[in-house]
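Researcher: Here's the sequence for the chain we discussed earlier.
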Amino acid sequence: MYEVRVWSFAPGPLQRLNVQHYQDKILVKALLTAVAQALGIQEDNIQFFAIFEGSLLNPLRKLDENCELHLPCQRSLSIQKWSFDMEKEKISLKSDMAALKLLRYQALSNIQEGRLKPSQEEIETLEGFSSFMVENQVINIIYSLKDYGAVIIENCQLITELTLPQVSLAKREYITLQLDLKGLTLRTSNTVCVISWGRIHMVSSSGNIVEYEVHAQSQLIKWLRVETHQADYLKSVTSEIWKILNKRHHAQDLRNSKNTAAGNIAQAEYPYHFGNFDEI
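Model: Thanks. This is the structure I predict for it:
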Protein backbone atom coordinates (compact mmCIF):
# COMPACT_ATOMS: atom_id res chain seq x y z
CA MET A 1 0.00 0.00 0.00
CA TYR A 2 1.16 3.52 -0.83
CA GLU A 3 -0.09 6.86 0.46
CA VAL A 4 -1.16 9.31 -2.26
CA ARG A 5 -1.96 12.94 -1.46
CA VAL A 6 -4.65 14.78 -3.43
CA TRP A 7 -5.70 18.41 -2.92
CA SER A 8 -9.15 19.92 -3.43
CA PHE A 9 -10.68 23.38 -3.05
CA ALA A 10 -12.44 22.27 0.14
CA PRO A 11 -10.94 23.74 3.33
CA GLY A 12 -9.08 21.49 5.71
CA PRO A 13 -6.39 18.86 5.18
CA LEU A 14 -5.79 17.32 1.79
CA GLN A 15 -6.95 13.79 1.06
CA ARG A 16 -4.40 11.18 2.11
CA LEU A 17 -5.29 7.83 0.61
CA ASN A 18 -3.72 4.44 1.06
CA VAL A 19 -4.19 2.94 -2.39
CA GLN A 20 -3.75 -0.54 -3.71
CA HIS A 21 -1.39 -0.86 -6.64
CA TYR A 22 0.03 -3.26 -9.18
CA GLN A 23 3.79 -3.25 -9.72
CA ASP A 24 4.08 0.16 -8.03
CA LYS A 25 1.55 1.76 -10.39
CA ILE A 26 -2.08 2.88 -10.14
CA LEU A 27 -4.54 3.94 -12.83
CA VAL A 28 -5.68 7.56 -12.63
CA LYS A 29 -9.27 6.30 -12.90
CA ALA A 30 -8.82 4.16 -9.78
CA LEU A 31 -7.31 7.10 -7.90
CA LEU A 32 -10.16 9.41 -8.99
CA THR A 33 -12.73 6.89 -7.79
CA ALA A 34 -10.98 6.48 -4.43
CA VAL A 35 -10.74 10.25 -3.86
CA ALA A 36 -14.36 10.87 -4.91
CA GLN A 37 -15.60 8.13 -2.60
CA ALA A 38 -13.55 9.54 0.28
CA LEU A 39 -15.20 12.93 -0.32
CA GLY A 40 -18.67 11.37 -0.46
CA ILE A 41 -19.38 12.09 -4.13
CA GLN A 42 -22.03 9.79 -5.57
CA GLU A 43 -20.67 7.16 -7.95
CA ASP A 44 -22.75 8.33 -10.93
CA ASN A 45 -21.35 11.85 -10.56
CA ILE A 46 -17.64 11.01 -10.57
CA GLN A 47 -17.80 11.64 -14.33
CA PHE A 48 -17.99 15.39 -13.60
CA PHE A 49 -14.58 15.43 -11.88
CA ALA A 50 -10.99 14.63 -12.82
CA ILE A 51 -7.48 14.44 -11.41
CA PHE A 52 -5.14 17.32 -12.29
CA GLU A 53 -1.43 17.95 -11.93
CA GLY A 54 -0.11 21.33 -10.83
CA SER A 55 -1.57 24.05 -8.64
CA LEU A 56 -5.28 24.24 -7.87
CA LEU A 57 -5.93 27.49 -9.72
CA ASN A 58 -3.46 26.95 -12.56
CA PRO A 59 -3.20 23.22 -13.32
CA LEU A 60 -0.56 22.09 -15.76
CA ARG A 61 -2.56 19.21 -17.15
CA LYS A 62 -5.63 17.06 -16.73
CA LEU A 63 -4.58 13.45 -16.27
CA ASP A 64 -6.20 10.90 -18.57
CA GLU A 65 -8.13 8.25 -16.65
CA ASN A 66 -6.30 5.46 -18.46
CA CYS A 67 -2.84 6.77 -17.59
CA GLU A 68 -0.77 5.15 -14.87
CA LEU A 69 0.84 6.94 -11.95
CA HIS A 70 4.10 5.52 -10.68
CA LEU A 71 4.30 5.11 -6.93
CA PRO A 72 5.41 6.62 -4.66
CA CYS A 73 3.95 9.71 -6.34
CA GLN A 74 5.72 13.03 -5.80
CA ARG A 75 3.53 15.01 -8.20
CA SER A 76 1.15 17.73 -6.95
CA LEU A 77 -2.33 16.31 -7.62
CA SER A 78 -5.83 17.70 -7.15
CA ILE A 79 -9.44 16.73 -7.79
CA GLN A 80 -11.49 19.39 -9.58
CA LYS A 81 -14.62 19.79 -11.63
CA TRP A 82 -14.26 18.64 -15.24
CA SER A 83 -17.48 19.46 -17.04
CA PHE A 84 -18.59 21.93 -19.71
CA ASP A 85 -22.15 20.75 -20.34
CA MET A 86 -23.82 22.88 -17.69
CA GLU A 87 -27.34 21.55 -18.24
CA LYS A 88 -26.29 17.92 -17.81
CA GLU A 89 -24.15 18.81 -14.80
CA LYS A 90 -26.92 20.83 -13.16
CA ILE A 91 -29.48 18.04 -13.47
CA SER A 92 -27.12 15.32 -12.26
CA LEU A 93 -25.57 17.09 -9.28
CA LYS A 94 -28.65 18.77 -7.81
CA SER A 95 -29.05 16.14 -5.06
CA ASP A 96 -25.36 15.34 -4.47
CA MET A 97 -24.39 17.46 -1.47
CA ALA A 98 -20.72 16.39 -1.48
CA ALA A 99 -20.34 17.34 -5.14
CA LEU A 100 -22.16 20.64 -4.58
CA LYS A 101 -19.79 21.53 -1.76
CA LEU A 102 -16.78 21.04 -4.03
CA LEU A 103 -18.42 23.19 -6.71
CA ARG A 104 -19.10 25.91 -4.15
CA TYR A 105 -15.54 25.95 -2.81
CA GLN A 106 -14.13 26.03 -6.33
CA ALA A 107 -16.49 28.87 -7.26
CA LEU A 108 -15.52 30.83 -4.13
CA SER A 109 -11.83 30.42 -4.95
CA ASN A 110 -12.45 31.77 -8.45
CA ILE A 111 -14.39 34.68 -6.94
CA GLN A 112 -11.45 35.50 -4.65
CA GLU A 113 -9.14 35.45 -7.67
CA GLY A 114 -11.45 37.79 -9.59
CA ARG A 115 -12.28 35.21 -12.25
CA LEU A 116 -15.96 35.19 -11.26
CA LYS A 117 -17.74 38.42 -10.33
CA PRO A 118 -21.03 37.75 -8.50
CA SER A 119 -23.15 40.30 -6.71
CA GLN A 120 -22.66 40.84 -2.97
CA GLU A 121 -25.95 39.07 -2.31
CA GLU A 122 -24.80 36.02 -4.27
CA ILE A 123 -21.50 35.96 -2.35
CA GLU A 124 -23.26 36.08 1.02
CA THR A 125 -25.61 33.27 0.02
CA LEU A 126 -22.77 31.05 -1.18
CA GLU A 127 -20.73 31.70 1.95
CA GLY A 128 -23.73 30.84 4.11
CA PHE A 129 -24.41 27.54 2.35
CA SER A 130 -25.33 24.64 4.62
CA SER A 131 -26.97 21.24 4.35
CA PHE A 132 -30.22 22.85 5.49
CA MET A 133 -30.50 24.92 2.34
CA VAL A 134 -32.58 23.70 -0.54
CA GLU A 135 -30.22 22.10 -3.05
CA ASN A 136 -31.87 23.83 -5.99
CA GLN A 137 -31.20 27.22 -4.40
CA VAL A 138 -27.47 26.52 -4.32
CA ILE A 139 -27.51 25.15 -7.86
CA ASN A 140 -29.34 28.19 -9.22
CA ILE A 141 -26.88 30.62 -7.61
CA ILE A 142 -23.79 28.78 -8.84
CA TYR A 143 -25.04 28.36 -12.39
CA SER A 144 -26.28 31.92 -12.64
CA LEU A 145 -22.77 33.31 -12.10
CA LYS A 146 -21.47 34.97 -15.25
CA ASP A 147 -18.72 32.87 -16.87
CA TYR A 148 -19.29 29.96 -14.48
CA GLY A 149 -18.04 26.81 -16.17
CA ALA A 150 -15.48 28.66 -18.29
CA VAL A 151 -11.78 27.84 -18.04
CA ILE A 152 -9.43 30.81 -17.74
CA ILE A 153 -5.75 30.56 -18.65
CA GLU A 154 -3.73 33.68 -17.90
CA ASN A 155 -0.35 34.96 -19.08
CA CYS A 156 -0.43 33.41 -22.55
CA GLN A 157 2.16 35.03 -24.80
CA LEU A 158 1.45 35.54 -28.49
CA ILE A 159 4.13 33.98 -30.69
CA THR A 160 2.99 35.93 -33.77
CA GLU A 161 0.83 39.00 -34.23
CA LEU A 162 -2.89 38.45 -34.72
CA THR A 163 -5.16 40.75 -36.69
CA LEU A 164 -8.90 40.08 -36.81
CA PRO A 165 -11.82 42.40 -37.64
CA GLN A 166 -12.44 42.87 -33.92
CA VAL A 167 -8.89 43.10 -32.60
CA SER A 168 -5.23 43.59 -33.45
CA LEU A 169 -2.67 42.05 -31.10
CA ALA A 170 1.10 42.41 -31.25
CA LYS A 171 3.71 39.68 -31.21
CA ARG A 172 4.88 38.82 -27.66
CA GLU A 173 1.81 40.49 -26.14
CA TYR A 174 0.35 38.72 -23.11
CA ILE A 175 -3.31 37.74 -23.21
CA THR A 176 -5.81 35.78 -21.14
CA LEU A 177 -7.74 32.96 -22.79
CA GLN A 178 -11.24 32.00 -21.66
CA LEU A 179 -12.79 28.81 -23.02
CA ASP A 180 -16.38 27.59 -22.83
CA LEU A 181 -19.00 26.21 -25.20
CA LYS A 182 -19.72 29.70 -26.54
CA GLY A 183 -16.22 30.18 -27.92
CA LEU A 184 -12.63 31.17 -27.29
CA THR A 185 -12.35 34.60 -25.68
CA LEU A 186 -9.16 36.67 -25.88
CA ARG A 187 -8.66 39.30 -23.19
CA THR A 188 -6.10 42.03 -22.71
CA SER A 189 -6.16 45.00 -20.34
CA ASN A 190 -8.32 46.94 -22.80
CA THR A 191 -9.65 44.42 -25.33
CA VAL A 192 -12.12 41.54 -25.35
CA CYS A 193 -12.59 39.42 -28.47
CA VAL A 194 -14.77 36.30 -28.74
CA ILE A 195 -14.02 33.79 -31.50
CA SER A 196 -16.81 31.26 -32.04
CA TRP A 197 -15.72 27.64 -32.30
CA GLY A 198 -17.30 27.52 -35.75
CA ARG A 199 -14.48 29.77 -36.98
CA ILE A 200 -11.72 27.65 -35.44
CA HIS A 201 -11.05 24.71 -37.75
CA MET A 202 -7.90 23.19 -36.30
CA VAL A 203 -5.69 23.18 -33.23
CA SER A 204 -2.21 21.73 -32.93
CA SER A 205 0.70 22.06 -30.56
CA SER A 206 4.36 21.49 -29.87
CA GLY A 207 5.80 21.74 -26.38
CA ASN A 208 4.43 24.85 -24.67
CA ILE A 209 3.07 26.32 -27.91
CA VAL A 210 -0.56 25.87 -28.99
CA GLU A 211 -1.94 27.25 -32.24
CA TYR A 212 -5.51 27.67 -33.49
CA GLU A 213 -6.45 28.01 -37.16
CA VAL A 214 -9.00 30.85 -37.28
CA HIS A 215 -11.16 31.46 -40.34
CA ALA A 216 -11.97 35.17 -40.38
CA GLN A 217 -15.09 36.63 -41.99
CA SER A 218 -13.02 37.51 -45.05
CA GLN A 219 -12.33 33.75 -45.42
CA LEU A 220 -8.66 34.46 -44.78
CA ILE A 221 -6.95 32.02 -42.46
CA LYS A 222 -5.36 33.54 -39.37
CA TRP A 223 -3.23 31.78 -36.79
CA LEU A 224 -3.58 32.32 -33.06
CA ARG A 225 -0.29 31.05 -31.65
CA VAL A 226 0.30 31.23 -27.91
CA GLU A 227 2.95 29.99 -25.53
CA THR A 228 1.90 28.93 -22.04
CA HIS A 229 3.18 26.57 -19.36
CA GLN A 230 -0.43 25.30 -19.22
CA ALA A 231 -0.32 24.10 -22.84
CA ASP A 232 -1.30 20.52 -21.96
CA TYR A 233 -4.26 21.80 -19.94
CA LEU A 234 -5.28 24.16 -22.76
CA LYS A 235 -5.25 21.27 -25.24
CA SER A 236 -7.36 19.07 -22.95
CA VAL A 237 -9.95 21.80 -22.42
CA THR A 238 -10.22 22.48 -26.16
CA SER A 239 -10.51 18.76 -26.89
CA GLU A 240 -13.27 18.26 -24.32
CA ILE A 241 -15.28 21.24 -25.59
CA TRP A 242 -14.98 20.05 -29.18
CA LYS A 243 -16.04 16.56 -28.13
CA ILE A 244 -19.27 18.00 -26.71
CA LEU A 245 -19.88 20.20 -29.76
CA ASN A 246 -19.29 17.33 -32.18
CA LYS A 247 -21.64 15.13 -30.17
CA ARG A 248 -24.34 17.80 -30.42
CA HIS A 249 -23.59 18.22 -34.12
CA HIS A 250 -24.00 14.48 -34.65
CA ALA A 251 -27.26 14.41 -32.67
CA GLN A 252 -28.61 17.21 -34.85
CA ASP A 253 -27.64 15.24 -37.97
CA LEU A 254 -29.58 12.25 -36.66
CA ARG A 255 -32.65 14.39 -36.01
CA ASN A 256 -32.42 15.94 -39.47
CA SER A 257 -32.04 12.54 -41.11
CA LYS A 258 -35.43 11.47 -39.80
CA ASN A 259 -37.00 14.15 -41.97
CA THR A 260 -35.48 12.86 -45.21
CA ALA A 261 -37.63 10.79 -47.53
CA ALA A 262 -35.23 7.86 -47.69
CA GLY A 263 -34.33 8.08 -44.05
CA ASN A 264 -30.64 7.85 -44.84
CA ILE A 265 -28.16 9.39 -42.44
CA ALA A 266 -25.84 11.78 -44.21
CA GLN A 267 -22.17 11.45 -43.47
CA ALA A 268 -21.42 14.43 -41.25
CA GLU A 269 -18.29 16.46 -41.70
CA TYR A 270 -17.66 17.69 -38.20
CA PRO A 271 -16.10 21.15 -38.02
CA TYR A 272 -14.06 20.61 -34.87
CA HIS A 273 -10.92 18.52 -35.16
CA PHE A 274 -7.33 18.34 -33.99
CA GLY A 275 -4.10 18.40 -35.89
CA ASN A 276 -0.92 16.66 -34.87
CA PHE A 277 -0.13 17.41 -31.23
CA ASP A 278 3.55 16.72 -31.82
CA GLU A 279 4.20 19.08 -34.69
CA ILE A 280 3.10 22.52 -35.81
